[in-house]
Amino acid sequence: MYFNGRGEAVSRARWKEMYQAFLNRQELIKAGLTSRRDLLRMGLLGGAGMLIAKNGLSSWGGGNCRYGSTGCGTCASPPTTPWTLPMPIPPVKQAIPVSSLTGPAPSINPNTAINPATSLPYEGRTRAHQAPALGFPFPAGVVYQVTQQQSQVRVSNELPMQNLWTFDGVSPGPTYVAHYGTPVLVRNINNLPVSNGGFGLNSVSTHLHNSHTPSESDGFPCDFFAAGQYYDQYYPNALAGFNSTHVATHGDINESLSTLWYHDHRENFTSQNVYKGLLGFYLLFNQFDTGDETTGFRLPSFPNYDIPMAFADRCFDAQTGMMVFDTFNTDGILGDKFLVNGVIQPVLHVSPRRYRFRWLNTGPSRFLQVYLTDLTSPSTPQPFYQISNDGNLLPHPVQVPAVAMGVAERSDVIIDFSQYAGKTLYLENRLDQPNGQGGPTGSVVAGGQGFLMLKIIVDGPVVADNSINPATLPAYYALPSVSATPRLQRSFNFDQTRDGQWTINGRLFSCASPRFTIQQNSLEEWAFDGGFGWSHPIHVHFEEFQITQGAPGLYGSSSDDPSNYSRWGSQYCWSGCSGGSSGVNVSRKDTVRVIPRGNVKMRMRFRDWLGRYPMHCHNVIHEDHAMMLRFDVATTGDMNTRP
Predict the structure, then answer these.
(1) Phi and psi (nearest 5°) for 270?
(2) How far apart are CA 153 and CA 159, in angstroms?
(3) Class of the 98-292 domain?
(4) For all residues of the chain together, what is the average pLDDT?
(5) 614 pLDDT higher than 70
(6) How confident is the model at residue 109 (pLDDT cuts 50, 70, 90)?
(7) Do domains 98-292 and 488-634 have the same CATH topology?
(8) What CATH number is given for 488-634 in this structure?
(9) E strands of 86-183, at which residues?
(10) What is the percentage of the chain residues whose pLDDT exceeds 90?
(11) Measuring CA to CA, which residue among 138, 111, 125 is closest to residue 215?
């Protein structure tokens, strides 16, 4: 059976049309005919900067294809049989002695012998580590070395081994297990090949997403380093506010983080390099979120019952079976194969007890609304508990029918499988999303009619469960106050130019200079405005924010029960919400979805570290074309209200 990128069955004839469109677009890419001038000269580009609506070519599929780039002309993967491979669980990264690092010992100042300076004011580490000057040990007490390399990875029994770019040979890469109060140094070694097999660039910058990290270790998009070079990144694992004027020393426990992830962030090539495999998990524990279900918050124990899951959708060539990336698509790529931890539709076996699943939407462009589905009764709700939003635990667990996630968002959930002993369940994405540009429509399909991503079989042995029942609504962290008067209000519009580039306040990204400068230890309020027909998951590096206006409901669609929206409010529904649309905030976030013509306001403090950071759309296709800006944090800030 053949499918389009929407998950709907299509005829053999329609699939052949889709695949021919894919081949034609690949020929344009191979011929180098992707510039606006070339395509205008050939009469293949319309006035709005899109490929003309011509069958076999257009990003809109041509003819009567109404599903945009979702499999209509850009993705026609070969059929694969689901549920034939187990879901991989990324290995835990092991620390090494600092003396075992490849190359010279870590240095506070950049090592220009290995990573020579260039004429640019960026590229490689050009700034000293800030942490030692603030009392953090150097080198850190825990040291890791990871190698970015090409490796053969199996994603399906029916497709060839894929030549993916990996961390230490696996994708997702190894999971870092870190603890507050214990700084970490990671030496990233770039051993990627020159030949990219069609997409990707072997120049990288690794970003620890959601971390409260010094600028020089943040993975700024222009701090890239080449093959044969390395980059030492220092992660203090310190609570935000430790060097701030608004809280006591040692930081604010209520700003504790939990589920983080790392991924490539190279300017202009983030989408290609992440699509090719450069991503992984970084988990932070403390005295409350301990990883041991007999202590602290008593969440299910890591690693046996606390499992990270990275969701992704990808395209594969029907002739070669190899993963492909449409470098011409500047709107947003939607694949027709769903992967969990790097495998297409895998299987997970669990015991009849509570589990903590850490869900991550890696994109590149698809939004998700994930349900737990029993195919013997697909319309029957199977509620579970959501305990986090992005990297932040909620004040208490919330029972939900589903979880909505834009690209880069995370949600930790607790599912009690004791009620499902002997059953088979599925994680199902039911969100309707016509194309990569516009985002979700605001509706969901019926149970069993969406994308089945993971098969869960509850056939494991009966084991002890010492985790606390989330139905008792245990308390986690309180929300830090953002009620003070902001020093400044800034506004940002996310839109598109006529030639198809993505902009913030009408401008494209530049590494060289900041759009604005924030005063350290200040509180600011930012307003985000969406464009006419597209959605953007906007990510702000360095600090968490709290939404004060425009925050819709927790889990998703307008077709869900609207009476719940007044209770939720930490995430967003895909269209209009009832009850919670006034923006009552119940969590901290690092990524917010700006819907078409939507307006969102948030407040955040900028503390502890100085330097440059980006804000960008995390539909990484938009980021690369070039919906991103640089801001700096300094001791003195500007008064630019619309940068």
Answers:
(1) -60, -50
(2) 10
(3) mainly beta
(4) 86
(5) yes
(6) very high
(7) yes
(8) 2.60.40.420
(9) 142-153, 162-167, 176-179
(10) 72
(11) 125
Domain residue spans of the chain: 1-76, 98-292, 488-634
> Are residues 288 and 256 in contact, defined by beta-carbon separation less than 8 angstroms?
yes
Only one residue has tokens 């020093």, namely 487
Region class of 362: left (phi > 0), else alpha (psi between -120 and 50), else beta: alpha
CB-CB contact of 238 with 256 (8 Å): no
Q: What single string gives the DSSP state of each residue in 555-583? A: S--TTS-GGGTTT--SS--SS--SSGGG-
502, burial (CB in 10 Å: exposed 0-12, middle 13-18, buried 19+): buried
Amino acid at position 144, single letter: Y
What's the pLDDT tens digit per position in 459-502? 999 999 999 999 999 999 999 999 999 999 999 999 988 777 89
Distance CA 161, CA 156 (A): 8
Check if the beta carbon of residue 610 is closer than 8 Å to that of residue 213. no
pLDDT band at 10 (very low <50, low <70, confident <90, very high): low
Residue indicated by tokens 């230890």: 521
C-alpha count within 13 angstroms, C-beta hemisphere, residue 414? 28
Rg (CA), the chain: 23
Among 132-141, 247-256, 547-556, the minimum mean pLDDT is found in 547-556
Distance CA 452, CA 427 (A): 6
- pTM comes to 0.89
Q: Does the pLDDT at position 47 exceed 50?
A: no
Q: What is the residue type of 93?
A: K
Give backbone dihedrals phi and psi of 30, rounded to 5 degrees, phi first.
Answer: -65, -35
Q: Which amino acid is at 25?
A: R
Which amino acid belongs to residue 499? Answer: D
